[in-house]
């Protein structure tokens, strides 16, 4: 079942961009990934993703996201809050 993943994390836009570049989800989408958005809230970023399943997000977080955060931010990485996962009835997008 599709899930919405939401996370607020204390990152600057520059730090977020560095992690985003290290993850490289645009040109190499992870398995189970549907869509991503990020909103700058001044002192933190609000991230929303759609995933095919909670397991797909978990695999991505472990295999790609955590290493990308370490690569991009190193010792400047903030403590990672728990993402909130919510099951969805339906999720789809238009790539056009």
Polypeptide structure, described:
- The protein is α+β, with helices and mostly antiparallel strands and 96 residues long.
- It is built from 2 helices and 4 strands.
- Strand 2 (33-40) and strand 3 (45-51) form a beta hairpin.
- Helix 1 packs across helix 2 (54-73).
Task: Please outline what is shown here.
By secondary structure, the protein is an alpha+beta fold. It has helices spanning 13-23, 54-73, and strands at residues 3-9, 33-40, 45-51, 84-87. A hairpin with a 4-residue loop joins strand 2 (33-40) and strand 3 (45-51).
Q: Mean of the pLDDT scores? A: 92
Distance between the termini: 24 Å
The geometry reads as globular
Q: Low-confidence spans: pLDDT under 50, at least 5 residues?
A: none
Q: Evaluate the radius of gyration.
A: 13 Å
Give the helix tally: 2
Topology as a string of helices (H) and strands (E): EHEEHE
The secondary-structure class comes to alpha+beta
Total number of beta strands = 4
Q: Strand share of the residues?
A: 25-35%
Task: Please describe the biggest sheet, giving its number of strands, its sense, and whether it closes into a barrel.
Answer: 4 strands, antiparallel
Share of helical residues: 25-40%
User: Could you give the order of strands across the largest sheet?
Assistant: 2-3-1-4
